[in-house]
Amino acid sequence: MSVFARATASRSSRAVWTGIALAGASALLLTACSTGGTATTPSETAEATADASEALPIAEGERALDLKIGTILPQSGALAFLGPPEEAGVQLGVDEVNEAAAGVNVDVVFRDSGDTTTDTATVSVTDLLSQDVSAIIGAASSGVSKTVIDQIVAANVIQFSPANTSADFTTYNDNGLYWRTAPSDVLQGEVLGNLIADDGNQTLGLIVLNDSYGTGLAKFTKEAFEAAGGEVVAESLFNEGDSSFDAQISEVTAANPDAIALITFDQAKVITPALVGSGFPGNKLYYVDGNLADYSADFAPNLIEGAKGTLPGLDTGSLGDFTDRLLAINADLTDYSYAAESYDAVVLIALAAYAANSTDATEIAKYLQQVSGGSGDGEKVTTYADGVKLLAEGKQIDYDGASGPITFDSNGDPTEATIGIFEFNADNTYSRLPDQ
Predict the structure, then answer these.
(1) DSSP assignment of 119-134
(2) At what angle do helices 246-254 and 268-277 cross, to 10 degrees?
(3) Are the CB atoms for 184 and 420 separated by under 8 Å?
(4) How far is residue 387's CA from residue 400's CA, in Å, rounded to a whole number?
(5) pLDDT tens across 372-410, in order?
(6) 3 state SS of 371
(7) Which helix (H) or strand (E) holds 261?
(8) CB neighbourhood size of 338 (10 A)
(9) DSSP label at 235?
(10) 3-state per-residue secondary structure call for 135-204
(11) The pLDDT value given to residue 435
(12) 47 versus 342: which is more confidently predicted?
């Protein structure tokens, strides 16, 4: 059996995910098996999108737009391992839009986001805004995005994250300028909590990064695990920049949990060997998108064989030649986390610019929901080139990209998403579990 989750979104309220968070499992209907591979959240009602009658008109004709975008993706800091696939996804999107030579020419400026221990993101955003970008793709970290979102929105520029998952952004006062292709942690928490329970664990310990991402995902994981009949017996927080985790490990292992979930970034490189060294079994650890990584060069063989983790996104093996195209951008890629979401961010922005016949961010933002399928009657397209052919005819489109069906709600959140479930191998690499 697969792991399935469903969420209903409403165009009339920017509080939809808050409602889900408060309602817990009653709003996310989820069934799980220990052999599950993915979780998908299709919108269950037409209320997730705007009515066709509410769609903005698309002017017929060709365009000649020069669109400038920037990125604040992690070249340094605790999420630096996500930077290469995300930047490759952005570059691939830019290249393919430009190769289409159809109405929009994109110029991209790459900048570092760092993490919350530095002001790197603020410096990068200031630089990008001085270059009159229409949109900024990033950050990967929800905590970093919170440090710059007000600055970006105040400048009337779009912020589009391929990896932010904090539920806080759903109701954020963003003037309609914040969008994301990654699903809220409401969903990942549901999948993770039910996975841990379905594996037969009755008690759970949590070691959690003390920021909006960590505490939010921990909250939803705990709610799901306890709703499934389990008990969270210990939860210990640490702060970004901490280098020693002995206190957290001692606190959680003292409660003798059946399993421990690490809701961290690359701090897992330090925490994991210390946990296993203390006697906790490596195959009873659970990882999340912030730390699901190739640890073959970091851990002793077999250290976490059998451990599991969750990560939003489709199976890269199902994406045809997408990974080959990414490798043509960066031949050193070994991880593809959020690459598809980054690629789709570029394509969606370009399609919305074409639909709006403008590079003004506020005009582009008006069309982002629509080109994702929010008009309710758009024709399915999977490439920028196919999309602009229809837009040039004044037709509505529904873009489904490398990350899957997207269809934004009025909050800028995707109403459809997939959560993959992974298991670590003997060499501490990880493989996606197949749907059962």
Answers:
(1) SHHHHHHHHHHHTT-S
(2) 50
(3) no
(4) 10
(5) 998 788 999 999 999 999 999 999 999 999 999 999 999
(6) helix
(7) strand 259-263
(8) 27
(9) E
(10) EEEECCCHHHHHHHHHHHHHCCCEEEECCCCCHHHHHCCCCCCEEECCCCHHHHHHHHHHHHHHCCCCEE
(11) 67
(12) 342
